[in-house]
């Protein structure tokens, strides 16, 4: 049953929030219930969930462990919700977010099936005018984007797609009724986290699955399993400690990165530690050594271990070599975790095709053509990722002071102060915007910090009868420098095809977008800015 659209009582609000995922729901709760503001959320989907509303592809599951993938602001909420598996799947995350929305009576202030197509700042009135696809205009003093970082699908512009006689889907816009692959010849393009999750599941029912790989990728087993009653009880008893760890470490996860260098141990000990981390599974593999993302030689030890695992799992040596031919340091691209990804290539109905050597040239009426061969297909799955971080914001057609389009302000790449505000766009806050840790962190933790900072900031303004806040240009310049320095201190920019750099979208400026200095450090910086009377922002 779709959620019912509440009839709007008024078109003028204190704050408008775009998006009803993790960010939008919590921002609504904070502004409405803590500050007493008149708030409306505008959501394109017909239910809550944001990214998880759209991502329903086979195998879609969160890579953060369930006990770390929730809000931490309410002890009661944390204790009453019980996850069923080590990693929650997309449907369970939607159930959780619906539970949150119902528990805090949020849906009455969300307009579903309402897509925002424009937003314009009116300087004289100090208000934002937001236009919807249906042609309605709503206004508010504050505009808050809660549109996520990975919500604008990237479908490569292969010639011929319109003439394809079969069905095609992007993983981020998956049909709610699912797709039946039984007996079909399926082509899947992309070997990022999504393609790696979907491949084994699609292979189970497809007549044949052809995976088109442009960049080979590392992956570590997820070892997903139902949670035991003991673990569930442990989580409830340790809410405060789990929260403390998530809030005090660099990545917002419920585990720490080990405080030892890869060179503190012998090669044999390293192997044993990697084996143990492989057996444990999950994103924690990154946490074995503190210098894994800082020292290329240290990273090489992990990379070699993982490439050897691929070679030992995949039986056909040519396929194994292609899968292990990885060109970037481990975890310099977002590291995937999987359930039987590499073993899937041992199935008779699965083929790997190298589209780096022989790129895809066209989609044909009956399949896909690379430089070398033609592949007849019934279904094409685009696991080709997103126009990350900037895409969801630019799609909103935001215009700031003097009608300046955000697209123009960010022509050479995104520039923000703390990932929270853009100079020239007063009273616009961007939750997990470019320049914030966001995608390098467990998202709910990054989101809660942003939402609470924005809420405190608006409370501060109300108390002092201030009407406008705007990032100052020099603060933006300095922050952009800090974001670049933080990235350059790591191996992250070495993955030249990474979406962190915008490299996956042709023509997109190559700028390392998220802040790589760590969530704990970032939290401290934001708190200090607020304590110094919102240093770097102009308030009036
Ligand atoms: O997208 P990606 P994704 N021809 O951009 C290939 C999050 N996530 O949807 O690397 C051929 O990583 C592209 O090749 P290349 C997570 O943060 C989270 O998989 O550009 N291939 C690449 O292999 C993740 O990082 C969860 O050379 C083309 C793939 O498509 C982010 O979402 C689960 C191509 C795209 O990989 C994005 O992951 C899943 C072309 N023209 C995802 N264009 C959670 O756990 C692109 N590719 C929460």
From TrEMBL:
Show the InterPro entries listed in the entry. FAD-binding_Monooxygenases (IPR050775), FAD/NAD-bd_sf (IPR036188), Flavin_mOase-like (IPR020946)
Per its UniProt record, the required cofactor names are: FAD
Q: Which UniProt keywords apply?
A: FAD, Flavoprotein, Monooxygenase, NADP, Oxidoreductase
- What GO molecular function annotation could you give as one example from this UniProt entry? NADP binding
Top-rank taxon, per record = Bacteria
| Family per record | Belongs to the FAD-binding monooxygenase family.
Q: What is this protein called?
A: Flavin-binding monooxygenase-like
């Amino acid at each position: 049953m779709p959620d019912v659209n509440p009839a709007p009582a008024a078109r003028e609000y204190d704050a408008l929030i775009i998006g009803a995922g993790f960010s939008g729901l919590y921002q609504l709760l904070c502004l409405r219930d803590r500050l007493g503001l008149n708030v409306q959320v505008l959501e394109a989907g017909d239910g809550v969930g944001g990214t998880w509303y759209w991502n329903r592809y086979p195998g879609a599951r969160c890579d953060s462990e369930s006990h770390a993938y929730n809000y931490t602001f309410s002890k009661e909420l944390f204790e009453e919700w019980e996850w069923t598996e080590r990693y929650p799947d997309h449907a369970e995350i939607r159930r959780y977010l619906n539970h949150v929305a119902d528990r805090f009576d949020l849906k009455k202030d969300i307009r579903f099936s309402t897509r925002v197509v424009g937003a314009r700042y009116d300087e004289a009135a100090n208000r934002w005018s937001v236009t919807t696809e249906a042609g309605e205009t709503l206004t508010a003093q504050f505009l808050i984007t809660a549109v996520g970082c990975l919500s604008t699908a990237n479908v490569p512009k292969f010639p011929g797609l319109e003439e394809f006689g079969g069905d095609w889907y992007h993983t981020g816009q998956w049909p709610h009724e699912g797709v039946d692959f039984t007996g079909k010849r399926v082509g899947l393009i992309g070997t990022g986290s999504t393609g790696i999750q979907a491949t084994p599941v699609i292979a189970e029912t497809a007549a044949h699955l052809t995976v088109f790989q442009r960049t080979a990728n590392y992956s570590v087993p997820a070892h997903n399993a139902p949670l035991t009653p003991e673990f569930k009880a442990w989580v409830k008893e340790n809410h405060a400690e789990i929260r403390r760890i998530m809030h005090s470490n660099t990545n917002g996860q419920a585990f720490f990165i080990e405080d030892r260098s890869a060179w503190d141990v012998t090669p044999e000990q390293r192997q044993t530690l990697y084996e143990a981390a492989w057996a444990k599974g999950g994103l924690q593999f990154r946490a074995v050594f503190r210098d894994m993302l800082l020292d290329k030689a240290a990273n090489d030890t992990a990379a070699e271990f993982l490439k050897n695992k691929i070679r030992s799992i995949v039986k056909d040596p040519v396929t194994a070599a292609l899968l292990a031919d990885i060109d970037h340091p481990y975890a310099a691209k977002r590291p995937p975790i999987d359930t039987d990804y590499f073993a899937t290539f041992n199935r008779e109905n699965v083929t790997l095709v190298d589209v780096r050597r022989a790129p895809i040239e066209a989609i044909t009426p009956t399949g896909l053509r690379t430089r070398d061969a033609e592949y007849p297909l019934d279904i094409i799955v685009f696991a080709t990722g997103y126009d990350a971080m900037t895409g969801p914001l630019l799609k909103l057609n935001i215009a700031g002071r003097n009608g300046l389009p955000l697209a123009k302000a960010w022509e050479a790449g995104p520039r923000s102060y703390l990932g929270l505000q853009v100079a020239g766009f007063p009273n616009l806050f961007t939750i997990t915007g470019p320049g914030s840790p966001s995608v390098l962190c467990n998202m709910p933790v990054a989101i809660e910090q942003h939402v609470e900072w924005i809420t405190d900031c608006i409370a501060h303004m109300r108390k002092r009868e201030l009407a406008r806040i705007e990032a100052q240009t020099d603060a933006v310049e300095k922050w952009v420098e800090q974001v670049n320095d933080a990235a350059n201190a790591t191996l992250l920019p070495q993955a030249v095809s990474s979406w962190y750099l915008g490299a996956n979208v042709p023509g997109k400026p190559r700028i390392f977008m998220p802040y790589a200095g760590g969530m704990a450090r970032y939290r401290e910086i934001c708190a200090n800015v607020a304590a110094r009377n919102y240093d770097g922002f102009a308030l009036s």
